[in-house]
Amino acid sequence: MKSRALSLFLPLLAFVTPSLQAAPAISQYGITWTFDKEYPTGQFCTGDYWVVGPVTVTGITTDQHAPGFTSKPGEDGSMVNPGTDSKQGYDSRIGSYDAKINAALIGGQPISATNPLVLKPGSSLVSMVSWLYRSATDAEPGTPKFNGGTKAPRPVTKAGAVLTVLEAAPPKGSFRPPYAGADKTVKFSLEKLDYSKLKNLPPVAGMPDPAELAKRMERPWIDHVYEFLGAMIHPSQNMPQYGRDMADTMGEVALMVLIDPAQLPGGKPAREKLVIELVQFGIDCAGIADSGGGWPPNGGHQLGRKYPILFAGVMLNDPHMKDVGHWKTLFHEDAQTFYVTQEDVDATHSPSWKPDTRGKDGPAPYTAEDIGMPEWSTRHATPGGNREWTVPYRAINGTANLGFVLATRIMGLEEAWNHKVLFEYEDRWMKKTGGIDGTARSPVVAVNMWKQYGPKEVPTAKP
Q1: What is the DSSP string of 28-56?
Q2: pTM of whole model > 0.90?
């Protein structure tokens, strides 16, 4: 146990106390940024790199491609301070691509010593490695399954890394500023983390290995592209492609950091690494929201982005992120859950009602008896919905919401969340399913912790 804990702790220690050094290039996750000369560089507490600028980038390259495959202009793209709309500059083979925002190309040509990219302080350079292919059957080993709509792998990117350009070296142990938007102020550090906000719960059956779980979040989760198009460029070596799977992983992390570290494999360093990764994801999500982004309700694509912001705010005692429950940002899980009203009853009995017909038993309108019932709908931006239990996406949202909903409850943050119906609906869903709904299954650790720390009395769910 001691040797394992030390092995987890040593990389963390290196990021807390980094040595400032000058370098002519930086490599991470198979991506190399080459400069015109040496610049002061270092790493944030997450392991992501910073460089003191302004800096001149003369090359962005990768060693991640299989023999026989060479990228073309418009592949292996980069973006500077990426926005939060549906456009991206990483890969030209899907329709969301915009060559004007591909920082790896200047004047249509790859950057080089004679065609350099000059980055001012206050810049985040996000670089991607594309999956290369000649056809669906002639592709790099490991290339994901092709998407029917884009006719390209889903996702189309393999790996991603973030380089932050600052005016001066940040304090030791600093968190990376958000990659989205223009504000690169270094606001947070490890010393601000308040571990007293966490619980020290006894272990439960089905806990994932903390080291393996940490690997799933140790690379940056690049999530700024709006709506379902974001899933198409989630780099597959960094993060899950689908929102449901992102929420499953994030929810497991949210619960594991509440376990007594003395009884956690890897001990205190293992929990600290998970906390750091979850806080950084929260900082990045807040940066996306602050730059005008959001996560509207749509199937299972966008869930799970609110909790990391709230968690980061609590752990860092940051008033802005702690107030996420009152932001105007649209969050998938909140926008899908609602109390049935007379308006919903009327809408589902009107000639204009166009419900999803793919459920097992067919569409079911609401009745007067349903008014006040906590309910779910894949898109409840307008009144309506569908009472039928097996309507598509109900199951996968119920399973994936469980981890972070339970973590919010255990930490006593329901009031701060400010959307009570989400918790009441998840209670209803759990009472009806126990965490398993057809082929959709909540993580085992979430189900077992819900049995221990979920509500002992759940309102009777309507069938």
Answers
A1: ETTEEEEEEEEEEEEE-TTS-EEEESSEE
A2: yes
In this structure, which amino acid lies at residue 97? Y
Rounded CA-CA distance 182/122 in Å is 7
- Residues 212 and 256 sit within 8 Å (Cβ to Cβ): no
Model pLDDT, residue 351: 92
Q: Degrees (nearest 5) of the Cα angle 207, 208, 213? A: 145
Reported as a single tens digit per residue, the pLDDT across 35-56 is: 999 999 999 999 999 999 999 9
Q: From residue 335, how far is each of 184, 251, 266 by CA, in Å? A: 30, 19, 38
Query: What's the pLDDT at 381?
Result: 56
Report how far residue 336's alpha carbon sits from residue 127's, in angstroms, rounded to the nearest whole number: 33
CA–CA gap between residue 53 and residue 117 (Å, rounded):
12
Q: How many CB atoms lie within 10 A of CB 171?
A: 11
Nearest one of 143, 148, 152, 127 to 62, comparing CA atoms: 127
In sequence order, what are the residues at sequence separation of 6 or more whose Cβ sits closer than 8 angstroms to the Cβ of residue 7? none
* 302-328: average pLDDT: 98
Q: In the prediction, which pLDDT does 382 show? A: 55
Residues 6+ apart with CB under 8 A from 48: 28, 161, 162, 163, 164, 176, 220
359, 388 contact by CB (below 8 A): yes
DSSP string, 90-148: S-TTSTTB-GGG-TTEETTEE-BTTB-EEE-SSEEEEEEEEPPEEETTEE-TTPPPBPT
Contact 33, 59 (CB under 8 A): yes
Task: Yes or no: say if 119 and 80 are a contact pair by the CB < 8 Å rule.
Answer: yes
* pLDDT at residue 294 tops 90: yes
- Looking at the predicted structure, is the pLDDT value of residue 145 above 90? yes
Q: Report the distance separating Cα 420 and Cα 412, nearest Å.
A: 13
What is the average pLDDT across 143-156? Answer: 93
Q: Please state, in angstroms and as integers, the Cα–Cα distance from residue 215 to each residue in 57, 273, 436, following that order.
A: 29, 10, 26
**Residues 56 and 35: beta-carbon distance below 8 Å:** yes
| Mean pLDDT over the full length of the chain | 92
40: left (phi over 0), alpha (psi -120 to 50) or beta: beta
68-102 pLDDT, tens digit per residue, is 999 999 999 999 999 999 999 999 999 999 999 99
Rg of the chain on CA atoms, in Å: 23
First-to-last alpha carbon distance for the chain, in angstroms, is 48
Longest Cα–Cα distance in the chain: 72
Residue 164 tokens read as 């932050």
Q: In this model, does residue 458 exceed pLDDT 90?
A: no
